[in-house]
Specification:
By secondary structure, the protein is α+β, with helices and mostly antiparallel strands. It contains 4 helices and 7 strands; from the N terminus they run H-E-E-H-E-E-H-E-H-E-E. Strands 3-4-2-5 form a 4-stranded antiparallel sheet. Strands 1-7-6 form a 3-stranded antiparallel sheet. The longest helix has 29 residues. The protein is elongated, with a radius of gyration of 33 Å.
């Protein structure tokens, strides 16, 4: 039995050594020990073509909640209809807030006796609609129009790019070309040759151009002029890291 155990241990040890050796060879074959990494960067700028903003209808009233809700719904329905007339699709309209809050009134208290608890004097209903506009040409008309239709506030206007594939690919190509040139320069200076490409990594980020807040009191004042909206551009950078094998 002792001899059998010894033989088994020897076989297992040889197998382990063989596995480690083969694994070491495979690692050495797949990822050379002598490598170097270069990077290239390119700027990406794209004209924005989508605007997103929120429009709110705030209705204050007494204790008749149903009446407040009806007034709020009527205004919001008018705004929805107007937006659809302006070409905004239903999928680009989303209710992002619907909040009913009580308003309290407090009795005067002289401090010589227990103060009566506050009572509810009425309610305030706030309904907010998030709107996405894919055609920026009528944006100014839309902003002024929804206030005329009853929105109390329009805010949070931001701009984005629907599809930046072409701009990103152009920047990617430029960044790779810069990295390849850098690799050749380093190899020339280091007196070695550029080997095969081992790995490639892309790091990219964009910075949307956030613009303005635009607000007004629906029904409280007449809109005298349509605002001029400048959508700006979306800028960013594409950075490419290339890892090459070093050859003598």
């Amino acid at each position: 039995m002792q001899q059998i155990k010894t033989v088994v241990l020897v076989v297992l040890s040889l197998a382990a050594v063989g596995y480690v050796y083969q694994y070491g060879r495979s690692v050495n074959q797949t990822y050379p020990n002598r490598t170097f990494t270069v990077s290239g960067e390119a700027k990406m700028e794209t004209s924005t073509d989508i605007a997103t903003f929120t429009a709110s209808v705030v209705t204050e009233g007494g204790n008749n909640v149903a009446e407040i809700q009806q007034q709020n719904v009527d205004k919001m329905n008018v705004i929805n209809a107007f937006l659809k007339e302006q070409g905004v699709e239903k999928k680009d309209l989303k209710t992002s807030q619907y909040a009913l809050s009580p308003r309290y009134s407090y009795q005067n208290c002289d401090g010589r006796s227990a103060c009566p608890p506050p009572s509810i004097s009425g309610y305030t209903l706030t309904q907010t609609l998030t709107v996405k506009v894919r055609n920026l040409e009528p944006l100014g008309t839309i902003l002024s129009g929804i206030i005329e239709k009853g929105a109390n506030s329009v805010s949070g206007i931001s701009f984005a790019v629907d599809d930046d594939t072409d701009a990103r690919q152009k920047a990617r190509t430029e960044a790779i070309a810069k990295a390849q040139k850098e690799a050749r320069n380093i190899a020339r200076a280091g007196n070695f040759r550029v080997g095969k490409l081992i790995s490639i990594y892309e790091d990219s980020g964009v910075t949307p151009d956030y613009s303005m807040n635009y607000s007004g009191m629906g029904g409280a004042a007449e809109i005298k002029a349509t605002p001029t909206i400048e959508p700006g551009i979306q800028s960013g950078k594409v950075r490419i890291n290339l890892t090459y094998e070093i050859r003598n």
